[in-house]
Amino acid sequence: MGQAFARMKFGFLALMAAVLTVAAPQMALAQDAAEAVAAPTEAAEAAPEASDYTPMAPTEGKGMPTSFEDDPLKSMTFQDQYTADGAYALAMHDWLLMPVITVISLFVLGLLIYVGLKFNRKSNPVPSKTTHNTLIEVIWTIVPVIILVVIAVPSITLLARQYETPPADAITIKAVGYQWYWGYEYPDHDVEVISNMLDEDEAAASGEYHQLAVDNRMVVPVGVPLRLQTTAADVIHAFAVPSLWFKQDAVPGRLNERMLVIEEPGVYYGQCSELCGALHGFMPIAVEAVPMEQFEAWVASQGGTMPTAEEVAEADVDAEPADEAVAEADAEPAA
User: Could you report the per-residue pLDDT of 40-59, keeping only the tens digit for each?
Assistant: First the structure.
């Protein structure tokens, strides 16, 4: 009897072990499935909702031209700048180029007046026969060279800054010019928008100026590097936003690229700056720079997605070999 009970107990334990062996993988799969269902829910809760995005209202006088009636002096000079390159270029214009140009112009004007009064026929009936003056010739050769060198140093610096390569993790926006509107593609976020000019009533209703307001702005995050690429589908256009010190041709079959970092949130207006046909003056540009949280909400409102940290890291890794190959090619001696 005892042996029979022991065999029954051993058989029961063996049966339980077999059941657990078969059920354990199924239980693990069920747990993984539950976690997979819960993970998107948590991610969805953490991600910004489309309703979090609200289009930014423009600030009067910021990122837009000034009319002569509002401020005659400001209407004849550059707009206030909201990028580092723009601030550098504006300072160079205001504190170097304009003083040099003014001094040279006044000096030449003074010489012309002096010559007109001193060496006219009435004041100087017997003209001088002097043909050379070594001192004057040395001065008017050396002084212009010095002036050109002084201007060249900051000019070359500005050119180098404008051609700085964007980093691998920069946000890519592709601006495509059409006759006559703009299209903006965000390949990293699976977003594409078409931007058309609003008519006069619609612009007034949105509190914006006619021929500057658009139905869909180019929304970008503020304070981060942007890789702004331009091309065109039909004829040559030019993507220009004066207050961001940005102007780049959009040429069919060619992709131009430049880095842009906007320092302050705001709405910045521009226009196509290449004569592209009958409605050339009716394809404005509106760039809306917002904090990163608002940009993420805008991407969600467009049905797009933000790239993950792993995708950004992979982009960095993919970019490194290409950079190394370029460096090696540059280092190789010419044949």
Answer: 444 444 555 666 889 999 99
